[in-house]
Amino acid sequence: MNARTPDILKNDKKTINGWAFFDWANSSYALVIAVAIFPNYFIRQTDDIINLAGWQISNSSLYAFSISFAYLIIALMLPVLSGVADYSGRRLFFLKIFTFLGSTSCIALFFFKGMPQLALGLGCFILATIGFDGGKVFYNSYLPLISTEDKYDQVSARGFAFGYFGSVILLLINLLIIMKPELVGISDDDLAIRLAFVMVGVWWVAFAQIPFRRLPADNYSQVSKHILKKGIQEIRAVWKDLQPQKNTKRFLISFFCYSAGVQTILYLAATFAEKELSFETTELILIILILQIVAIGGAYLFAFISSLKGNKFSLLSMLVIWISICILAYFVQYKLQFYLIASLVGLVMGGIQSMSRSTYSKLIDDHVEDATSYFSFYEVLEKLAIVFGTFTFGFIDQLTGGMRNSVLVLAIYFLLGILLLSSVKIERKPKNQLRYS
Q1: pTM value?
Q2: In angstroms, rounded to a whole number, what is the distance separating the alpha carbons of residues 402 and 389?
């Protein structure tokens, strides 16, 4: 039996804004470290070919494989942790644990300077990734608890918008320090970059205090020595419940396919730009700023399209754009062309994530009591998708000696997502009438 869901006033503005501030806090990792600065820094500070346990592996492939490894660990952990959280009522507890792990690991990246600290750099990056994405299942599971079904799209978009605004502010500060390190009394460019890692960790843990104070407190049930077993049983129960839910299952499989493409592009775009087009750190930061600004509008744009045409139409439209992005990236030769591709990525980046989360919330609306366990399936599939996507990317890169073929292969994941999503029926209620899209 689950911990009883506490009585929560839904659609409360203060609670929703507090929830959204968690995106403001942890998105700094996703933008500054995972996307904008660390990939380029890692490629520059390491050898092109690294001897690892007798294997000759390119630094870009090693970076991709480190992401695969991090998400494999997350995928293995989350079914147990989310089941335990749902059974014992410890959503906020685990949200805090993963926040502390991620933020301290970001700060520790300050000590990664090059090949002598390769193990430290990869280890802290993996732990920071686990901290970032490991806590998202508990964060996402609050959505059906703090808002009603008709507000899912808007509330979900607000969370992503808060994340984009907050992370852009921090990235602008980092850009200023990297371009003008003398403003903070330093002259070493690498030190300015490593200082950005510290700032992410501090920003993350500091702003996370807002949701920690505003989100409903955990409603603990008695913890028994068999709690891990209970957590696994909870997950199995949800899996059994999913069997007759054809629409939900089809959506999850489609989500798995296109997430492999989306998340891989977001994580490895910077390494592609550095190795294939020789982008500098400041140039990459400018690209990411463009991407983020466009993404804010994109999240709301596709929420609006969904209100007119339904979630499925909105998602399918974005997947077509993602396929176009892969094809264009394969042929890109000049930096200006890459800026234009980045703008397209920004347009659909926020929309695809926000719309996927709200669509799934609609599909599981009758299972709010098991929200954490249900969202664990969503999160685990996304993590496994990242494992498959990044491993595919790194393997093709290692096999062919270039990243362009890797990008082109990702288009297959998006195509599979389109084919599967086409058969999904999603309920929507415009103007108080139930329709299917």
Answers
A1: 0.82
A2: 16
Place of tokens 């249900």: 374
Residue 6 has pLDDT above 60, yes or no: no
d(CA 35, CA 150): 33
- Range from 48-52, 144-148, 180-184 carrying the lowest mean pLDDT: 144-148
The Cα 371–Cα 144 span in angstroms is 7
Q: For residues 238 and 416, is the Cβ–Cβ distance under 8 A?
A: no
Residue 160: CB atoms within 10 Å: 25
Mean pLDDT to the nearest integer, 250-269: 91
Task: Judge contact between 282 and 270, C-beta under 8 A.
Answer: no
Looking up tokens 């077993």 gives: 229
> Which has the higher per-residue pLDDT, 350 or 294?
294
Q: What is the pLDDT of residues 368-392, one digit of tens each?
A: 566 667 777 777 788 899 999 999 9
pLDDT band at 83; cut points 50, 70, 90: low
Of 256, 266, 16, nearest in space to 154 by CA: 16
- From CA 247, how far away is CA 240, in angstroms rounded? 15
All structural domains of the chain: 13-217+228-436 (1.20.1250.20)
